[in-house]
């Protein structure tokens, strides 16, 4: 069971994008959002770092340090992944398509 907070499109109150790096996005099957997917954050060496469950609208969110990350989604609709590079504080958006 994943104990992560509920995922929403809105950032939590008090999030300061001038100081924090936030990875956000959606899990889709190419045309529709995929809710209930296990979304994993892997570091540049492929090591597991964190996991959340996508919301009913496919949203996920991670707070991460600068670097290259892999976002991997595992769902009943299939699996998929995307790479994202975090260069510093700010909002970084990537969609993960599962098939």
Write the layout of secondary structure elements.
Elements: E1 21-28, E2 38-42, E3 48-53, E4 59-63, E5 67-75, E6 78-86, E7 90-93, E8 96-97
Parallel strand pairs: 1-7, 1-8
Antiparallel strand pairs: 1-4, 2-3, 2-5, 5-6
CATH architecture: Sandwich
Share of helical residues: under 10%
Radius of gyration: 13 Å
Summarize the biggest pleated sheet.
4 strands, mixed
The 3D shape can be described as globular
Number of E-type strands: 8
Question: What's the order of the H and E elements?
Answer: EEEEEEEE
Pfam families: DUF1416
InterPro entries: DUF1416
Can you tag this structure with a few keywords?
Immunoglobulin-like, mainly beta, 99 residues, single chain
What would your notes on this structure say?
- By secondary structure, the chain is mainly β.
- The protein has one domain: Sandwich (Immunoglobulin-like), CATH 2.60.40.
- The strands form two sheets. Strands 1, 4, 7 and 8 form a four-stranded mixed β-sheet that branches. It has a four-stranded antiparallel β-sheet with strand order 3-2-5-6, with no helix packed on it.
- It holds the Pfam family DUF1416.
């Amino acid at each position: 069971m994943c104990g992560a907070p509920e995922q929403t499109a809105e950032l939590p109150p008090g999030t300061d994008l001038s100081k924090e790096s936030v990875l956000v996005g959606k899990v889709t099957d190419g045309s529709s959002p995929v809710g209930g997917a296990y979304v994993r954050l892997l570091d540049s060496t492929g090591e597991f770092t964190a996991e959340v469950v996508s919301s009913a609208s496919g949203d996920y969110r991670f707070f991460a340090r600068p670097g290259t990350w892999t976002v991997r989604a595992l769902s009943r609709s299939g699996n998929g992944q995307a790479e994202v590079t975090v260069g510093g504080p700010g909002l970084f958006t990537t969609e993960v398509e599962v098939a």
